[in-house]
């Protein structure tokens, strides 16, 4: 694995949503390597979540697997309550979950559309609200939301319309809450990956899409996360950091 920046997170607790597999799992493990105890949220991937907790424990940190269906109202608040009961505090909230339904824009049933917005946008809002007392008590509370490359300048993507709408809203939420919570000592930022090597729709001709010629690795995303959590990132809030290798810097015909 590529070395990533280090942050001293000893004594701190992080909650990562969707941390049983893929990107979320990689971020949870990076936080544990930096010294944090980690609450591993999962939806249905219990076995993978417990495996992630075992890896965190092997690193000498506390790990907790907590299940919640973030498409269901009230589950976000219950997740925070359980996380605090398990870990005793919360310093970092990473909103990683992002349902990604693909298909024709009118092929998504209204209930599935609502569920995407609920999981990707409403749930992060509810999680932040529920976690706020703990984040304020931390003294170094931070929220990091996961977006997508190009979210600042959206070009319609008919294959993933609901996802794109939800993440554009999450960027507005990020910057609004950064303004509201900054005076209270809580920072809110976004990390927006492009194609990751575990992406479900990774193009075969990645070099024609990404100027740096390769997809992102988990360590690239984790590096941005740990930077925001390190002293070097302490004066940053309301930012959107694209970790995309230059993806979506070109003209519209290169954006698909």
Number of helices: 6
Uncertain regions spanning at least 5 consecutive residues: 251-256
Strand content: 5-15%
Element string (H = helix, E = strand)? EHEHEHEHEHEHE
CATH superfamily: NAD(P)-binding Rossmann-like Domain
| Rounded mean pLDDT score | 91
The radius of gyration is: 17 Å
Query: Taking strands numbered 1, 2, ... along the chain, how are they ordered across the largest sheet?
Result: 3-2-1-4-5-6-7
**How many strand segments?**
7
What does this structure look like?
It is a single chain. This protein is of the alpha/beta class and 256 residues long. It has one domain: NAD(P)-binding Rossmann-like Domain (Rossmann fold, 3-Layer(aba) Sandwich). It contains six helices and seven strands; from the N terminus they run βαβαβαβαβαβαβ. Strand 1 (13-16), helix 1 and strand 2 form a beta-alpha-beta unit. Helix 1 (22-33) runs parallel beside helix 2, helix 1 crosses helix 6 (218-229) and helix 3 (75-87) packs parallel to helix 4 (110-138). The chain starts with 12 loop residues before the first strand and ends in a 13-residue tail after the last strand. Mean pLDDT is 91; it is low at 251-256.
